[in-house]
Every structure is written in structure tokens, then in C-alpha cells.
Amino acid sequence: MPHIALGGEDRTDEQRDLRMELRRLLTRLWSDDHARELADGDRTTGAKLAAVLEHDIALGALLVPEELGGHGGGCVEAAVAAEELGAASAPSRLLGDAMSAHLLATSGDAELHRRLRRVVEDGVPAAVVWPAQDATWDLHQIHPVEITGAGASGRFRYVAEALDAALLLVPARRGAEFGLLLLDLSREGSGVELHPAKGADVLRPLGGLTVAGPTGEWVGLAEPQRVFTETVALGAIVLAAEMIGAARSCIERMATYAGQREQFGRTIGSFQALRHQIVDALVAWEAARAMTYRAAAGFAAMTRGTARIDDVEPMARMAKAAASDALGEASETCIHVYGAIGFTWENPVHLAFKRWAASAQIFGSPTEQRVRVCQHAIINAGGRAGGALRVAG
Questions:
Q1: Does residue 209 register a pLDDT over 50?
Q2: Terminus-to-terminus CA distance in the chain, angstroms?
Q3: Exposure b/e, 134-158, CB count within 10 A at least 16 = b
Q4: What is the pLDDT, as a whole number, of residue 392?
Q5: Angstrom distance (rounded) from CA 168 to CA 124
Q6: pLDDT at 215
Q7: Contact 127/96 with Cβ under 8 angstroms?
Q8: Cβ-contact 225, 207 below 8 angstroms
């Protein structure tokens, strides 16, 4: 299958090397057959790939600072990895590992830094418990776990990558103070219930979490809202890059198939109407990819102290909205290009369509993201105008 010529988003040799190494590895260890087996419920299918990602590439340590035992990579590197994994429909723990690493590293708490070092050294899979359906990215709006004298209590219906985690980082509240509840699932008893939740994406199972009783370890945070908003914004960018990869694969597949499939004595790719649909998907993908890597670069600048989360959050939201739309268009068009076979379980295109159906909703739908960005722009404009701006009701 021919590959789309990628633009200049890889700014460093390290980023180019990471992309090429992941592409070689996924070509060797992962295929459409593996993805179908995983979708059929064989959770052992990806064991070899997971071992290589963890031990040979140490993907879980990609965003961990070097002084804490990691690679010292940033959001752009995470986007590169997510795009290649998304293009291959390959399972990974990149979303959970990236969010966990950022939350622990930027918490400002020495004990959490030591915990992150142990997570890297022991290869502990971690996940940030944030409701998948939330679009606010606001700690005060999600009903965090309540900590009282009797213990902890709270419930989250849908959490991405929680089922395979050994350490859960749960937003919590103790009185007027917001912070973090650490749940080590290898130690916790009956106070923690984790169960599968139904979701469209068969390659990324969702989990529900119920916490009740004296369990977990409470850690207060100096700037909880900032830390959690940054963490969810990072997750949105990783999801966007993953969807960009899946959309790229759909475009490559339909372009290849349109050049092979014949109808009325000519390849279907020669029909102008079909070519227009493929090009429309390509144009949407190119725009969304540029927005995703711009958001990733902005996030990386924020971690270096040269940008603010107030600037990066709208970029992350717009990137995720654009990537969601691009994958939706590419996967639907790809199914139509394939015709009847595109609707079968044997054809892998349905995996990309289901990834879109799920990922587009995680941390907010495209419409919700754009509404939030508009609200952000109106508030900022009102502030610059001395509060004189009025919004028609």
C-alpha cells in the first residue's frame, strides 16, 4: 500500500527516528489480522507488540522527564507515536501513560515525582481517571471523589484505559481542597470496583470505577485546576493524533483500492465523483493534521514555560474537533469506496469507523469543543474591551 507523503511536522532527528522505528516495528509485528483477532476478543493478540513497545522502545516513559528516569520527550513526540499507532490500528497504553506522566511530573509534589520514577522503573501501567464524556476539562464540574473521615466515595461511568492499569490517578476533593487519590490496584481491597463498560471502539475498552470506603492515598495539589486541565488537554492532543493516523490509513486504503477495483471496464478511481470524495477527505486530513501538530508544539512550548494553558487549551480543542471530523469523513468515505465488502467484519475499515465513533466523544464532541473555544474567545474579547462586550441572547 502506498503511503501519503508526510509534511515537515517532524522537526528533529529524534522525532523522525521515532516515527520510522515505530513504522518498521508495526509493519513487522502488527497486521489487519491481528487487529481483527483483538476485535474478536482475543486480548492476548497484542502481547508481543505490547512487550516490544514497553521494553524495547519504552513508550511508557516517552513523556517522563530525564531526571525522573524517562526519555524527556514532549507532546510532539507523543503525537508522532500516536499517529503511527493509529494508522496501524494498534493497541497501546500511550494515552494513559502520557497523561499520567504529565500529571505526576507537573504536580509540584516531591512524593509524586518519586512515584513517577517507580512507575517508570517497574513498568507500572497507569491511567488518569477522568470521565470520558466530559467536555469542560474543569475539575469543579466533574464530581471528583469525595474524601471524608469515613473514607472515599465516588463513581465514574466511562474511563479510557482504566481496565489495564495498575495505578489509577483519581481527581479528588477533601473539604475545600482539591487533589489526587492514588489507587494502587495491586494493594487496594474491596473499596475499589473496576468493571468493563460498553464502548464503540473495540480496540480501546472503557472501564467504570466505583470507590467506596477507606481506600487509596490522598495527595493535595498546589494548582489542581491547572494540572488537570493541562493533563486532559494533552490527552485530547494524543487522541487527535491517533485519529489523524487512522484517517491517513483510510485515505491510503481507498486510494489503493480505487486504483485496483474495476467497474464498467475501468478502475473506479477514474470516476470523477469518487475522486472528489477521496480528495475532500485528504484535504480535511491535511488541515486537521496541521492543527494537531500545531497544538502539540504549543503544548511543548507550555511545558518549557514559553506559553500558557489559556493559549494551548483552545488549540487542543480545535485540533481534536478537526481530527474527529477528518476521521469521520475518511472512514465513512472509505467504507463507501470499498462498496459491499466495506461493510463486512472481515474488512478492517470498520475498526477506524468505530474508533471515530468513540474517540470523537472522549473529552468532548467536536461541537462541544468548538462551543468551548467560542466561549473562550468571547470571554477574552470581553476582558480586552473592559467588560463592555455583550453577547446577543
A1: yes
A2: 52
A3: bbebebeebebbbbeeeebebebeb
A4: 43
A5: 10
A6: 86
A7: yes
A8: no
30-59, pLDDT tens digit by residue? 999 999 999 888 888 888 898 899 888 899
Residue 218: count of CB within 10 angstroms of its CB: 16
Q: How confident is the model at residue 387 (pLDDT cuts 50, 70, 90)?
A: very low
CATH topology of domain 13-123: Butyryl-Coa Dehydrogenase, subunit A; domain 1 (1.10.540)
Q: What is the pLDDT of residues 191-200, one digit of tens each?
A: 899 999 988 9
- Please compute, for residue 127, the number of CA atoms within 13 A of its CA located in the half-sphere on the CB side: 23
Contact 49, 30 (CB under 8 A): yes
Domain boundaries, the chain: 13-123, 127-223, 225-384
pLDDT of residue 11: 78
List the grid coordinates of 374: 467560542
Query: Is pLDDT above 70 for 388?
Result: no
**What is the sign, positive or negative, of the torsion defined by CA atoms of 277, 279, 282, 283?**
negative
Vertex 34: Cα angle to 205 and 168 (nearest 5) = 25
Query: 64, 70 in Cβ contact below 8 A?
Result: yes
On whether the CB atoms of residues 363 and 137 are closer than 8 A, the answer is yes
Cell of 126: 497507569
Where helices occur in the chain by DSSP H, the ranges are: 13-29, 32-39, 47-51, 75-87, 94-105, 110-122, 224-258, 272-303, 309-338, 349-359, 366-384
Q: Distance between CA atoms of 366 and 291, rounded to whole angstroms? A: 14
Q: Which of 115, 279, 267, 148 is nearest to 214 (CA)?
A: 148
Lowest mean pLDDT, pick from 82-86, 187-191, 262-266: 187-191
The grid coordinates listed for 267 are 478502475
Whether the CB-CB separation of 48 and 55 falls below 8 Å is answered with no
* Mean pLDDT for the chain overall: 92
How many Cβ atoms are within 10 Å of 185's Cβ, its own excluded? 14
- Residue whose grid cell is 516531591: 110
Q: Give the CATH architecture of domain 127-223.
A: Beta Barrel (2.40)
Q: Per-residue pLDDT tens for 63-121?
A: 999 999 999 999 999 999 999 999 999 999 999 999 999 999 999 999 999 999 999 99
Question: What pTM, to 2 d.p., does this model score?
Answer: 0.94
Class of domain 225-384: mainly alpha
